[in-house]
Design brief:
- The chain is built from 12 helices and 16 strands.
- By secondary structure, it is α/β, with parallel strands linked by helices.
- The chain folds into 2 domains: 388 residues, Alkaline Phosphatase, subunit A (3-Layer(aba) Sandwich); 80 residues, Arylsulfatase, C-terminal domain (2-Layer Sandwich).
- The chain has a 10-stranded mixed beta sheet with strand order 7-6-5-4-8-1-9-10-2-11. The chain has a 4-stranded antiparallel beta sheet with strand order 13-14-15-16, covered by helices on one side. A two-stranded parallel sheet has the order 3-12.
- The chain is globular, with a radius of gyration of 22 Å.
Length: 506
């Protein structure tokens, strides 16, 4: 793992740019609690507050009405693990240690993904340094238990959930991770992948004793109650609506049977588990997520924590993409039927807007105007300096930081000028790089060995947010400038190479 320090990232600016006296919490005895909720594979258009008309999301919609809705917020990566890395470390994909979904190599003993190192500093560690108690509940994906990447080694005092993303492919797994121990939850677990070419498909055949999201939610509620009298950072990387589809039946029953008359049952042909009513099942996953968000909000109210808590809700990447059978997306998901991208191009795994632009709502009473809208382009690396400012925590890390502070954007709609472009580098899905500077966005695909790299594409997102017209041939000077900016700022990461850029075979 390569760890580099780049002097052109002016970390000192971040210190000077934080007028701590401007924020109300500096005048309070207790700094604000921070609740960060991260959905899994939730698309830009899958919430009512973002235009969804079929799926019920009343709790998240209410959260948006009580706070701000971001219209140009981006994940740091188009898939799970690297997105989480960019969020927690404040680094974009051209600098981050984790740039893809790669297993740790530990096999079945403490399974998990490639670990972040001791050298990296997470936002949890920064918050802990100023007295926050930190808990993480849900899907981790940044290193197995008993490695440097364990949440217990990266600033968290309590962890419960799926350390390994592969274990999270089932909502009825054999175990969950509690701190650094595996805790068995189902004696008859359900594997996350199965095909049923013929015969009756029954949802109950893919359920077991304990539904993992409910257990994770219960532990998160316990954390709130235990720490209600001191500042806390509650990180909630919920698993829903990532397939497989195994939602509670009561939510499935809320949706019309007519939805699934066209395509019928899903038999697992595009991976994951079969489902008798895949469209209703997918909607039910999102409604179940919404209910869990509602439970968190209810408990903040129950313990009189609403006023002094900022709640952030977003998603790790765009919605599930298609696969073998064109009638269904992966796992039977219905991303096309629900217009899950809100009309944007691309899905999960893509650096087109549909793969990386995600919903984001923020509620911060007396700080963020209810019903407001933030149009400033922003992305996951921005949350590191933003949460540090909210907590009055000094940014003493020497690592590269790529984000800007969003507190002024949330409060007034005006964000500080972004000195560096937003960048994505992903060695999966054929190899993709993308860069956004102002309204211009350029991307290039097929950058792995054995593939013919495609030409740069260029889009003006101010006039063409759906990326329907590639204007690279009309503006070669802009393409050249964006390519230069990207190459000048990226660092090589040997564990996650982009062969075309790094001249390696992989």
């Amino acid at each position: 793992m390569q760890f580099l320090i780049q002097p052109y990232f002016v970390i000192a600016f971040l210190f000077c740019a934080f007028p701590f006296g401007e924020i109300a919490m500096a005048q309070q005895n207790t700094p604000p609690n921070i609740v960060f909720i991260l959905a899994d594979d939730l698309g830009y258009g899958e919430l009512g507050c973002y235009g969804q008309e079929k799926i019920k999301t009343p709790n998240i919609d209410q959260l948006a009405s009580e706070g701000a809705r971001f219209t140009q917020h981006y994940t740091g990566a188009p898939v799970c693990a690297p997105a989480r890395c960019t969020l927690l470390t404040g680094q974009n994909l051209a600098h981050a240690e984790i740039r893809g979904n790669r297993d740790s190599g530990n096999g079945r003993i403490f399974p998990g993904q490639f670990p972040i190192t001791d050298e990296i500093v997470t936002i949890a560690e920064v918050l802990k340094s100023v007295g926050y108690t930190n808990g993480a509940f849900g899907k981790w994906g940044l290193g197995p238990s008993n490695t440097t990447g364990s949440p217990m080694k990266q600033g968290f005092d309590r962890y419960y959930g799926y350390n390994c993303q592969r274990n999270a492919h089932s909502y009825y797994p054999p175990f969950l991770d509690s701190d650094e121990k595996e805790v068995r939850i189902n004696n008859f677990p359900i594997p996350g992948h199965l095909r049923l070419p013929s015969g009756e498909v029954r949802a109950d055949d893919y359920r077991a004793e304990n539904y993992a999201p409910d257990l994770i939610l219960d532990e998160a509620v316990k954390f709130i109650e235990k720490n209600k009298n001191k500042p806390f950072f509650l990180y909630l990387p919920f698993v829903e609506p990532h397939v497989a589809m195994q939602p509670p039946q009561e939510w499935i029953d809320q949706y019309p049977t007519e939805w699934d008359e066209e395509n019928g049952v899903y038999r697992g042909q595009n991976g994951y588990l079969p489902h008798p009513r895949p469209r209703a099942g997918y909607a039910a996953m999102i409604s179940d997520l919404d209910e869990h968000v509602g439970t968190i909000l209810e408990n903040l109210k129950k313990f009189n924590l609403e006023k002094n808590t900022i709640v952030i809700f977003t998603s790790d990447n765009g919605p599930t993409h298609g696969s073998r059978d064109p009638r269904f997306h992966v796992g039977g998901a219905a991303s096309t039927f629900f217009n899950s991208t809100g009309g944007l191009k691309g899905f999960k795994g893509s650096c087109y807007e549909g793969g990386i632009r995600v919903p984001c709502v923020v509620r911060w009473p007396d700080q963020v105007k209810p019903g407001s809208k933030v149009t400033t382009p922003s992305y996951f690396p921005d949350w590191f300096p933003t949460l540090a400012k909210i907590a009055s925590a000094p940014l003493e890390t020497k690592q590269i930081l790529d984000g800007i502070d969003l507190t002024s954007a949330m409060k007034s709609g005006n964000a500080p000028k972004r000195e560096q472009p937003m960048v994505w580098e992903f060695n999966g899905y054929g190899g993709i790089i993308a860069i956004r500077d102002g309204n211009w966005k350029a991307l290039r695909r097929n950058l792995r060995k054995g593939k013919q790299p495609l030409d740069w594409e260029l889009y003006n997102l101010a006039t063409d947010p759906s990326e329907s017209k590639d204007v690279a041939s009309e503006h070669p000077e802009i393409v050249a400038n964006l390519e230069t900016q990207f190459l000048e700022r990226r660092t090589s990461e040997p564990d996650f190479p982009v062969p075309f850029l790094d001249n390696v075979e992989k």
